[in-house]
Amino acid sequence: KEILKLLNSTDQSQFIFALSMQNHYPFEDDRFPDHKIEIKSSLKDINKKILQTYTEGINLTDESYLILKNELIKIKKPTIVVLFGDHLPLLNSNLDIYKKTNFDIYDQTKMHSTPITVWANFKTNLNLPKEISPSFLSLEILKLANITPKYQFAYLNSISSSSNVLSQSIPLKFNSDQLKKYELVQYDLLFGKQYGIKE
Questions:
Q1: Are 100 and 43 in contact (CB under 8 A)?
Q2: How far apart are CA 140 and CA 2, in angstroms?
Q3: Cα separation of 76 and 157, whole Å?
Q4: Are 196 and 152 in contact (CB under 8 A)?
Q5: Strands (E), 29-98
């Protein structure tokens, strides 16, 4: 509702970043009063309850996403929606559920890989790389919206042929010069004199 309220508050183009903590740790037993989804698992007691809460949260997120899309279909303003997570859920503090299902918790690429959903109420041609970090995802959104990348996005565009993954948890494919320049671009925007904006 808040996203739609913001979107309809002006005819100007907007970037709306909405963050949901609905499916974030800890997954208490009583977070959701109703259980619409039946969990069939060999997991016992607390782990099964954690999985139940997580699954209910995902289901509610899906329902909210559908409501949002159905409302956006009705409006004429070209709109792009990108839904993603920044890592897999912790589920429980010792990652016990992952261990019991033989999931490799030491594979940081797996632990930080989540599906991305991109939807638009207009015809688009989006072809995302198989692996992409949020900073590069924002670059792709600009391209999808036919907005010429500027500032830090222009720099990301210039190094995107090396990789689209920029993470502290995953080995990088960028050289030290590329990383240093990106650090300087970020510093300039956040703490410097914003030379990049003035160009």
A1: yes
A2: 25
A3: 30
A4: yes
A5: 80-84
The answer on pLDDT for 198 being more than 80 is no
Could you count the other beta carbons within 10 Å of the beta carbon of residue 83?
17
In contact, 181 and 188? CB cutoff 8 Å: no
Supply angle C-alpha 37, 40, 41, rounded to 5.
Answer: 130
CA distances from 183 to 65, 100, 112, 190 (A): 35, 40, 22, 11
SS3 (DSSP) at 61? helix
HSE at residue 69, side-chain half, CA atoms within 13 A, is: 14
Place of tokens 């060999």: 42
Mean pLDDT along residues 174-178: 91
* C-alpha–C-alpha distance, residues 84 and 4, integer Å: 19
CA distance linking residue 165 with residue 52, whole number of Å: 32
Instruction: Quick: pLDDT tens for 89-141.
Output: 888 878 888 888 888 988 888 888 888 888 988 887 777 888 888 888 888 88
Q: DSSP assignment of 92-104, as one string?
A: STT-HHHHHTT--
Query: Does 23 have pLDDT greater than 90?
Result: no
Nearest Cα to 5, choosing from 29, 177, 14? Answer: 14
